[in-house]
Amino acid sequence: MHREKKITQEDFLNTKPHTQALLDILGACERIKKTPIPFSYSVYMKIFITVYGVLLPFALIPELGYLAVPVVMVVFFAFIGVQLMAEEIEDPFGLDCNDLPTGDIAHNIKNNVFEILEAKSSIGKEHVLEEYEKVF
To answer: Which residue range forms the structural domain that includes residue 63?
Structure first.
């Protein structure tokens, strides 16, 4: 847009660091998406939780007696819950209900950019809408 003289030099200089920051964040998000938790880590955690849950009653029965059963159930439930949460947040970018709302975030960024461009445009609102229709 700067080469085509649609925005001024000042606008170009003002938007360049924001564009660079957006690209840096995009790169970080791609690294997060492409770096899953290793399978061996997941298997190790499941084995550890299972062994711990099986052996915990033997350690607690001499101290708590029959009260050890609900205590072990609560501890095992907590560990399983943490493991399931870790598996669920391993990939935060997707379309599941608990994934990050990247579509909404992108839509808000687009709206904010067009509001900023509309406010700085000397031609008027209709010109900005025409540019919007050309881009999308």
So the answer is: 37-90
